[in-house]
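Entry type: protein chain
Record version: 2
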Amino acid sequence: MISVERLDLGYFTRPAAEWGGPHDREEPVLAYLVRHGGGSLLFDTGMGTGSPETDAHYRPVRRPLTVGGVDLVVNSHLHFDHIGGNQGFPDTPVLVQRKELATARAGGHTIDSLLPGVRYEEVEGEYEIADGVLLLPTPGHTEGHQSVVLDHGDRVTVLAGQAYDFAHEFGTPYRPWIGRIAELADGRDVRVLFAHDREVREGTLPTPR
């Protein structure tokens, strides 16, 4: 049995000029607690403590991350709004793609003060965490972005992070890793959950265009 609980960790305001729209927009910051036969994992950890410059730009409203008994943390990627709570789990392994960690440590990728004091464990490519729990590289938003694919038996859930910003955008543009999810689903329904959208995408997967 695999269960997924969504955690609402606040929101930030993205300026219109940054996303090319007519107005500023509020975006939720969502994490996910997964319990499975082998234990539990936390997918992303919210915004945590930022920097004055970042807070002035995004005007974040933070809600506390209050979960215990987490065996593993998985970061979709290392932007500040996904790793802010990592330092609250100093003894817990945090899985990240090798490419993503190298990019973050090179500077200019995230809030650098959020990186130390974390037990990062690098993976490269697909990585099976437990039976029915798979890490899958989903590059696009960043080159080292990863998602978690959960096999419930009768259906599949994808914790997509920021592989796409919104549910209605999923698959546009098409990215080759969607084909890998379709292969893993093998005709079953796929439910996709996002980091910055409360809407859920369900059903069949898009085909290449």
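Comment: Residues 90 and 159 are 23 Å apart (CA to CA).
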